From TrEMBL:
Residues 23-198 form the FtsK domain. It comes from Dorea longicatena. ATP binds at G42, M43, S44, G45, S46, G47, K48, S49. PROSITE patterns: FTSK. One of its GO terms (molecular function) is DNA binding. This is DUF87 domain-containing protein. The keyword rRNA-binding does not apply. Keywords: ATP-binding, Nucleotide-binding.
């Protein structure tokens, strides 16, 4: 099946995979026509990092050579070690620099100083842990950071600014003004955790999960706050190619 140019492959339909052994793509629109901010959740061992690597590679291919990607890696574990050394890779003590760069671009576009319309994407891994760390040292600074994140979520779409946040648990304390539920895509991978579902999904949609037992790389995606999909993340056969795509995106001028 050919995937339209505006759409991004997230995974395969979970029910079709297990019920009929069919690979039916689950794709989402990530153009500026719609809210393409994404919140990716999953506990340790859930396959979250594996999904993020795929997501990064596919978003880079979809947006093209003119796009710019920033990667904020608070935890800085081996999952993204191939990105270290890239100019737009920001490790644990420099993640706020990535946010400030993207925030500055957004405001230059908002005031008309920058009229470019290529996508600028910030991927921020372990966001909540990062906020908690900042808050423990300087609560005022943490508030400033969260307000910038909230502003990007609210204003970024029409200015071609995209935010992809990954975290184990999407605690409300990390998202001011209810911005936690204002992501176009909310993806939860790994074993079902009722408390995480209840943070992000209405009760009637949680009930639709039923008795499905998700393993690593499997889970749910809530699309634009109302449409629920059950997904199985693809296995990448050429991981070195995927890594090369990501490195190029974080390096090119």
């Amino acid at each position: 099946m050919t995937i339209p140019s505006d759409e991004l492959l997230i995974g395969y339909d979970y029910d079709a995979w297990y019920g009929y052994a069919k690979k039916i793509p689950v794709c989402v629109d990530v153009s500026a026509k719609i809210n393409s901010h994404a919140l990716i959740c999953g506990m340790s061992g859930s396959g979250k990092s594996y999904l993020i690597n795929q997501y990064l590679a596919r978003i880079c291919l979809r947006d093209g050579e003119d796009s710019i990607v920033y990667f904020a890696d608070f935890k800085q574990d081996d999952s993204f070690s191939h990105l270290r050394g890239c100019p737009r890779y920001y490790p644990y003590d420099k993640t706020i620099e990535a946010l400030d760069e993207v925030y500055d671009i957004m405001h230059k576009r908002q005031c008309g100083e920058d009229t470019s319309k290529y996508f600028v994407t910030l991927i921020w891994d372990e966001y909540i842990a990062n906020i908690l760390s900042i808050s423990g040292k300087d609560k005022k600074k943490a508030g400033v950071v969260m307000n910038k994140v909230s502003e990007i979520i609210m204003l970024g779409r029409s200015l071609f600014i995209r935010l992809i946040i990954a975290t184990q648990r999407p605690e409300a304390s990390g998202f001011p003004s209810g911005s936690r539920i204002n992501f176009g895509q909310i993806i939860i991978v790994g074993a079902s955790i009722e408390s995480v579902y209840s943070m992000l999904m209405p009760k009637e949609l949680i009930e639709e999960v039923g008795n499905r037992k998700f393993h690593a790389g499997e889970g749910v995606m809530l699309w634009q706050g109302s449409e629920l999909k059950f997904i199985k993340v693809p296995v990448i056969r050429d991981e070195e190619k995927m890594k090369a795509i990501c490195i190029n995106a974080l390096t090119r001028q």
